[in-house]
Amino acid sequence: MSKKPKHVAIIMDGNGRWATKQGKKRFAGHNRGAKTVSKIVEQAAKEKIEYLTLFAFSTE
Q1: Of 2, 15, 33, 52, which residue is the least packed, with the fewest Cβ within 10 Å?
Q2: Residue closest to 40 by CA, chosen among 55, 21, 59
Q3: Which residues partner with 52 through β-bridges?
């Protein structure tokens, strides 16, 4: 028996570091992260996840 969670929380971290390691500007990492968030939101809606919490914070 498999249950879906009602609430999924994601802490977004490392997009800028990922881009730097790929030889790209940090902004490219943040842009890629934003595209990924869009996919996550769409999938959560399809799966009927009641609550989706996304924590994103940057001092940049």
Answers
A1: 2
A2: 55
A3: 8
Of the candidates 58, 60, 59, 44, which has an alpha carbon nearest to the alpha carbon of residue 9? Answer: 44
Please write the tens of the pLDDT for every residue from 9-31. 999 999 999 999 999 999 999 99
The answer to whether 53 and 9 are in contact (CB under 8 A) is yes
For residue 1, name the pLDDT band (cuts at 50, 70, 90): low
If we measure between CA atoms, which residue out of 1, 33, 36, 34 comes closest to residue 18? Answer: 33
Identify residue 23 by its one-letter amino acid code. Answer: G
Q: How far apart are CA 5 and CA 15, in angstroms?
A: 26
Tokens of 12: 């977004």
Q: Has this prediction a pTM greater than 0.85?
A: no
Q: Which of 36, 45, 48, 44 is nearest to 56 (CA)?
A: 36
